[in-house]
């Protein structure tokens, strides 16, 4: 059975294992691989933050987008690991007492609880920084032009115009009523930007043409929207045991979401419309797009 | 009078003004220049952190090293601004309550005091991220290979093997006695790495040959050492008014420095040896090296 014909969950799991193994090697304590001295406690905190049993959705999207566009190369796994470093950095910083003040993530103590606040800040900083080192490395892509494009895209989607800006808007929105436009803006930046970029970066790796790139980038935007809507739905429809994290957090924090504005049924309808659009966007790629369209459906209907 | 023949202080001041003006433009609130939405409060915090009246020593070293090696181009100013973004990010995060807990910097409230802790963390994150966007931009250097080299060098000197790692060691050393080797290691990482990289990056921009590059990189190492030794000396020999920051902090914190280990005289002697080495390293560049050697002397003998 070729990988492409395996069930999505098998493929997702295999990718998560590849990513974890690669990150494990990059953050290995073995000094033979490291040219620089890396303080052991800080390294351990970075490992705690990034080797966290995550689903590695962003790496999967990047690798599968690149594959759909004809690019299969070990460099895609490296670039995918850079995305996961940025995702993990944002979780570590978002969990800090000054931000969302979360003590648990995936049932394990968050980095500032397992270590200390200063170490958590520095572990996040170091993972963010490492991501750019990985992206710019010639082992990621043989063309320097592609690497600089990846670096710039990652920076623009992680910085003030992307994830960091979105987190800032999210904090500022706490306890006050915000408009639907504001909710969409902050969610697009905080969560949507990196998911969209995961797909766009797959097109960069594959050096896709403008039309292909526009299609997968819009597909990435849809993935970002669907991910957030599904997350908001799960918060109101699931138990904490199902989620593996505290349910009902949005309501408790009186946090406005699209679900609280429009209700559960309208949100499910929007999700269906998004999935239909995703399928028609990728239709020109034929069976090569099967994995990505299945991923869109999985994200929209996931249970945790 | 050509710029090269102007007194060092005039040149330093002119460079600091160029850097501040360029950063001001990059962080302008004018939406015409920005392709992405940037939350105003976070942008204001980034401006507060980076438009701080700093001496811009790192940008100066980079621009002057590139110039000595024959490279004069607006891209050098852009790359220099990226260095200053990384320097400012590190100051913002180091000042946080969980780290050094400083309320004042250059006589102004630190970012977490002027804004709040969450905003300070995100402003630091955003400045760090922005630096990589600037470095990878084709406006910095026309060759993508040079830009990826700059990105990787910056990441390696800012991350766990550089500044973040050094800060982590510094925090871990508080209140316990550490060896001279440990002091040198942490200072080289925390302060030395970015100063050395400023010089090395000048050679990258100028596409210098291996011999030239080795010479300016060693020069950068010397600058880093001299900067730290001078800083440690000032802490014991100056008043707070002269320094523009609290004097005697190292002694009060019982922080071991090379000055506390070897005394003032031996430290001054080490500084003199370093300056002599710097001068002989750059001797092959003749009068083209005048500015850099004057900078080394200035750093070793500065009063604040």
Automatic annotation (TrEMBL), chains A, B:
Under the heading Pfam families, the entry gives:
polyprenyl_synt
Q: Which PROSITE patterns match?
A: POLYPRENYL_SYNTHASE_1, POLYPRENYL_SYNTHASE_2
For biological process, the GO terms are:
terpenoid biosynthetic process
SUPFAM superfamilies to which the protein is assigned, alphabetical: Terpenoid synthases
InterPro entries in the cross-refs: Isoprenoid_synthase_dom_sf, Polyprenyl_synt, Polyprenyl_synt_CS, Prenyl_diphosphate_synthase
Query: Which keywords fit this entry according to its UniProt record?
Result: Isoprene biosynthesis, Magnesium, Metal-binding, Transferase
What's the protein name? Probable farnesyl diphosphate synthase
According to its UniProt entry, this protein's organism is Cohaesibacter marisflavi
Question: Hey, which family's this protein in?
Answer: Belongs to the FPP/GGPP synthase family.
Q: Which cofactor does it need?
A: Mg(2+)
Would I find Acetylation among this entry's keywords?
no
Task: Write down any Gene Ontology CC term.
Answer: cytoplasm
Q: Give the signal sequence positions.
A: none
GO MF terms held by the record? metal ion binding; prenyltransferase activity
């Amino acid at each position: 059975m070729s990988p492409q014909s395996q069930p999505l969950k098998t493929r997702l799991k295999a990718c998560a294992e590849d990513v974890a193994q690669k990150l494990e090697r990059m953050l290995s304590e073995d000094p033979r691989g490291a040219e620089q001295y890396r303080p052991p406690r800080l390294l351990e905190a970075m490992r705690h933050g990034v080797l966290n049993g995550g689903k590695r959705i962003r790496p999967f999207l990047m690798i599968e987008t690149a594959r759909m566009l004809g690019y299969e190369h070990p460099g895609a796994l490296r670039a995918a690991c850079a995305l996961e470093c940025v995702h993990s950095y944002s979780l570590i910083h978002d969990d800090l007492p000054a931000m969302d003040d979360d003590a648990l993530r995936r049932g394990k103590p968050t980095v500032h609880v397992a270590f200390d606040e200063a170490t958590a800040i520095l572990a996040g900083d170091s993972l963010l920084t490492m991501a750019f080192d990985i992206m710019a490395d010639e082992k990621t892509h043989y063309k320097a032009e592609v690497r600089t494009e990846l670096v710039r895209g990652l920076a623009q989607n992680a910085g003030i115009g992307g994830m960091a800006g979105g987190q800032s808007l999210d904090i500022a929105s706490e306890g006050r009523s915000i408009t639907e436009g504001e909710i969409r803006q902050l969610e697009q930046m905080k969560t949507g930007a990196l998911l969209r970029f995961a797909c766009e970066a797959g097109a960069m790796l594959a050096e896709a043409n403008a039309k292909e790139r526009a299609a997968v980038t819009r597909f990435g935007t849809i993935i970002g929207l669907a991910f957030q809507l599904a997350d908001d739905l799960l918060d109101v429809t699931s138990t904490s045991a199902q989620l593996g994290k505290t349910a009902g957090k949005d309501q408790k924090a009186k946090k406005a979401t699209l679900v609280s504005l429009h209700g559960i049924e309208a949100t499910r309808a929007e999700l269906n419309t998004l999935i239909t659009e995703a399928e028609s966007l990728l239709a020109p790629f034929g069976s090569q797009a099967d994995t990505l369209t299945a991923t869109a459906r999985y994200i929209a209907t996931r249970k945790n």
